[in-house]
Specification:
The protein is mostly helical. The chain contains 5 helices and 4 strands. It has 2 domains: 8-64, Winged helix-like DNA-binding domain superfamily/Winged helix DNA-binding domain (Arc Repressor Mutant, subunit A, Orthogonal Bundle); 81-142. The protein has helices at 8-19, 26-32, 38-50, 83-107, 115-142, and strands at residues 54-56, 62-64, 73-76, 79-82. A hairpin with a 2-residue loop joins strand 3 (73-76) and strand 4. The longest helix has 28 residues, at 115-142.
């Protein structure tokens, strides 16, 4: 089984099936994954079924068969989060510690902030912003808002 095919609408359908707590019909998936039509939903459901990730129950509704890892993402419970978001959290923590040190230097007379520390703080801010921006773009790419209404890919 390959998860390379899990992107765009197929990934949105898969994430919806993972999040839902009950079997989902094609119409449920169409609404829940914000797809353009039931035929688009059906196409992606068949693709996921072929990959062995979902299956039909006795009533023709779709259920999760296997939760798999997705390149560049991490499952947090039932939510799919870009891995880059965790890196941005690391830099947010480092930035908070650096700002705390700067604020302490205003209170403690003998604590002097050197130029290299200001440079480090600037690089931390830049890194934090870049990781937030990249993870947001990755998330937006994996969850498009039906921009391509002509092709069910």
């Amino acid at each position: 089984m390959t998860t390379d095919e899990l992107e765009g609408n197929t990934l949105r359908v898969y994430a919806y099936i993972v999040r839902t707590d009950e079997p989902a019909s094609v119409r449920d998936v169409t609404r829940g994954a914000e797809l353009t039509s039931t035929s688009v939903a059906h196409h992606h459901l068949q693709k996921l079924e072929t990959l062995g990730l979902i299956e039909k129950d006795n009533y023709g509704k779709y259920i999760l068969k296997q939760k798999t890892s997705i390149k560049g993402h991490v499952w947090v419970g039932k939510n799919l989060v870009p891995r880059l978001m965790f890196y941005s959290f690391f830099f947010m923590g480092a930035f908070t510690a650096e700002v705390s040190t700067i604020l302490l230097s205003l209170v403690i007379e003998n604590l002097v902030i050197e130029t290299s520390f200001w440079l480090l703080t600037g690089l931390t801010v830049l890194s934090m912003i870049l990781f937030i921006k990249e993870s947001s773009e990755l998330n937006r790419k994996q969850n498009p808002k039906n921009t391509d209404k002509t092709h069910p890919s």
